[in-house]
Amino acid sequence: MTNDFHHILDGDRAQIGVGAVLLRRRAAGLDRDLLAAVEAVAGQAAFRHMTTPGGFQMSAAMTNCGAWGWVTDRAGYRYAGEDPLTGQPWPALPPVIAGLAAAAAAAAGFPGFRPDACLINRYRPGDRMALHQDRDEAGFDHPIVSVSLGLPVIFQFGGLNRTDRPRRIVLGHGDVVVWGGPSRLAFHGVLPLKDGDHPVLGRCRINLTLRRAH
Ligand code: MD6
Ligand code: FE
Fold it and tell me: In the CATH scheme, what is the homologous superfamily, with its name and number, of domain 13-81+88-211?
């Protein structure tokens, strides 16, 4: 019953919803390159805890790369071309990240994906992300590619209404989720990160979400 949509497509691919595909460990072989790219980005645009419009601090620390970065403060959620901490443009999208996103999207049935925004979330034990929709983009015709590294987390994948009971999927090191079409506005979130010690990342999880913001 809970796995109605969890069809195994092949060894490493599972359909988790209409237009949503999980590519297990698709990024695992690139982990060192991806993490080096994230470190380089964070050297220019530091991880920070942003404030929600309601005045709460986001639990995950965030930064961005690419032409557009997702930001939140008391004024609202939006995409910005500059890092509000420095006034500088966000660091360029590293080719290893852009290439992975395009290849994963194509493998999931969305050829020609050219992301212009990459949000980088860093979770420490206890950090979480409440159920939300990704709806700050200018349009919803493009998929989202999500790359998980480090400690595993329970990902909640719901429906188009906040009250639809979400399904739970464990996202581990190297797992990639591609999600578009009828699932593009599905509610989703992650449960509090359980403590652990990952061989590559230690007590930490990194998630990259790549989007077409404009
Ligand atoms: C996370 N991910 O996995 C948070 N959004 O840490 C997201 O919010 C997300 O994984 C849209 C599509 C895929 C995602
Ligand atoms: Fe999201």
Answer: Alpha-ketoglutarate-dependent dioxygenase AlkB-like (2.60.120.590)
